[in-house]
Predict the structure.
Amino acid sequence: MPKQPGDASTQQVSLWRRFMNQAANVFAVSAAVLVIVPLVVIFIYLVWKGVGSLNWAFLTQTPKPPGELGGGMANAMVGSAVILALASAVGIPMGIGCGIYLAEYGRDRFGDLVRFTADVLNGVPSIVIGIAVYSLIVLRQKHFSAFSGGIALAIMMIPTVARATEEMLLMVPNNVREAALGLGIPKWRTTLSISLRTASAGVITGCMLAFARVAGETAPLLFTAFGNQYWNMNPNQPTAALPLQIYTYALSPYDDWHRQAWAGALILIVMIVAAVAAVRIATTRGALKGAS
Amino acid sequence: MGVGIEVRGLNAWYGKHLALKSIDMTVPANHVTAVIGPSGCGKSTFVRCLNRMHETIPEARADGLVKVGEMEVYGDGTDPVEIRRRIGMVFQKPNPFPTMSIYDNVAAGLRLNGFRNRKQLDELVERSLKLSALWDEVKDTLHKKSGASLSGGQQQRLCIARSLAVEPEVLLMDEPASALDPISTSKIEELIFQLKQHYTVVIVTHNMQQAARVAELTGFFLMGSLIEYDKTEKIFTTPADKRTEDYITGRFG
């Protein structure tokens, strides 16, 4: 190797600098560990408490009357899936549409108003959204329903999805848009097929975050989906949901229900992780070499 | 086949700032015309006015007469999308669509305008990549690799292929080689020379040697005005205007 400029001096790294380098490293690693520890502890605790009550009956049966042993949460699992599907079907397209508006057109006062409203909505306690949907839909229909629960959760998803979509679209370099417009591709096509596609990884992450957040919500479902001890496949009727079932069981005086609440919590976490992982796998399978 | 361009009294603004002052210029069909001048002189604005890309910038506008072939670019009822379909553009920084494969990049302009015939699409993609001298380097990884995975010079040739695939009549190039190394630059220049058989090419360049190498005609812009426009040879040997002479001899700019 030929002699490099500054060869002599670079070998003499002072002790102090080496110490500081180590200290910074230790600090960064311990911060990362501190973040992971609570998550891992919660998960291990859930598995420890919940896995014992997991059995075939729990996964396939509806709840037994109070005080009786056995039964399961099958109806609540399906109910949660239905409510979350409804919420995603409404909340994700509306959120993405709103985000597109904010990023591509909303550079004016109205855009600022929408942005501000979305941020406020994001901070509204979930129980308030539950009450609002209760008075707007449930009181008018005069009955609880999976439908109203889905709407309540959708309202909670919209601001998260909208702001994530906006931020991801703003990260798409302008020269990519120019390239598309320069080819004679209309603006709406450019936005949907070029900008949104380029930003899709981030937009999907935003949708998954919103999904995971509302999947565990209990408060907005108390006045909307209400819960149900029996099978119900009609989205216009009161429907069981895992968070509601966990809430009811955890507050009950029965030991068997306490154990089932732990199992329900474990199932809820597994369902969320499975859904997020499935979307991740489905969306990265088609990725190209060297795509950024 | 390429078509000629007529420009009469073209003005362009950014907000209140007048960036182009009453430009008159006639660009002949199937020739390479270079536009030179110091930074900020309006040369990029000028080519962006030819395909109505100028107005995509907020608060930017332009007026005047621009005729490309028989088409009035700023005529009433002229659709800017249609204009851009017939006048291709290559930008300063290579800008392939990052999430698309090489093939999809080239096919994008056709597909997103509703072109569906798979066989014809394959042919057009191959023809465009051959025209832009990229085919041999990418033919085995057309569908596997992203456009963003290519080198800078390859990316720029990919962008040229993408513009050519929609079969424009005019190709505008805004400093297409300024971000590239000398070898890639010479490839692009060779390519420009080939392209004029099929297209009218207008190229903006910072590099006067490049203008001298590739263009038959050269226009010199200064502070929003077209100072001198003539055969390239004339501009670089016996310019009529003192300011042109000062610029090409490196006295300013």
DSSP finds ten helices and ten strands in chain B. The interface with chain A takes residues 51, 53, 56, 58, 81-86, 88-89, 91, 93, 95-101, 108-109, 112-113, 141, 144-146, 148-149, 159, 162-163, 166 of chain B (CB under 8 Å). The domain at 5-97+168-248 of chain B is CATH 3.40.50.300 (Rossmann fold). The beta strands of chain B are 5-14, 17-27, 32-36, 60-68, 71-72, 87-90, 170-174, 200-204, 217-222, 225-231.
